[in-house]
Amino acid sequence: HDQRSLYEHKLELMRTEVQMKARAESKIHAQERKIADERTSHYRRDLQAEQESRRAAERDNERISKVNEQLTHEMSRDKSRIQELEEILAEERKLKHAAESELEKRTSELSLASEELQRMTKNAEGMQVKLAATEESVSLLTAIREDSEAKLE
Predict the structure, then answer these.
(1) What does the pLDDT look like over 118-142, one tens digit per residue?
(2) Shortest CA distance to 24 belongs to which of 35, 13, 32, 39?
(3) pLDDT (tens digit, 9 = 90+) per residue, 56-84?
(4) How confident is the prediction for the chain on average, in pLDDT?
(5) Concatenated DSSP letters of the chain
(6) Predicted TM-score (pTM) of this structure
(7) Can you tell me the distance from the alpha carbon of 20 to that of 12, in angstroms, rounded to the nearest whole number?
């Protein structure tokens, strides 16, 4: 009976020890589970933040891509306009050069005409002087003739 009591007591001690170990293991397991849950929660938050960051970066990339497309289109249009204006400018330069050449030609012709007009004016003045002298001579001759006719009569 004592032996049985001793055996039951040992058995009870072992049960208590096993229960304590089981409780300790359970607490350890619960703590490990809690730590694992916290890590999982932390990883999920990090993953969500990373996914949101990635989505924001993708939206930014889309906006940048659209802006780049728009700028490329505008730049192409501006290049075309610049080329068109350069062609217009080249044509204007040709026309200006042609007009300057024509002006130079007309100025030269006008200068020659002016010189000719001056020569003709000088000749006309000379002829006017001769005409005046001739008219004076005719007047004098007419007066002499009239005087002679009067004397003859």
Answers:
(1) 999 999 999 999 999 999 999 999 9
(2) 32
(3) 999 999 999 999 999 999 999 999 999 99
(4) 94
(5) -HHHHHHHHHHHHHHHHHHHHHHHHHHHHHHHHHHHHHHHHHHHHHHHHHHHHHHHHHHHHHHHHHHHHHHHHHHHHHHHHHHHHHHHHHHHHHHHHHHHHHHHHHHHHHHHHHHHHHHHHHHHHHHHHHHHHHHHHHHHHHHHHHHHHHHH-
(6) 0.46
(7) 12
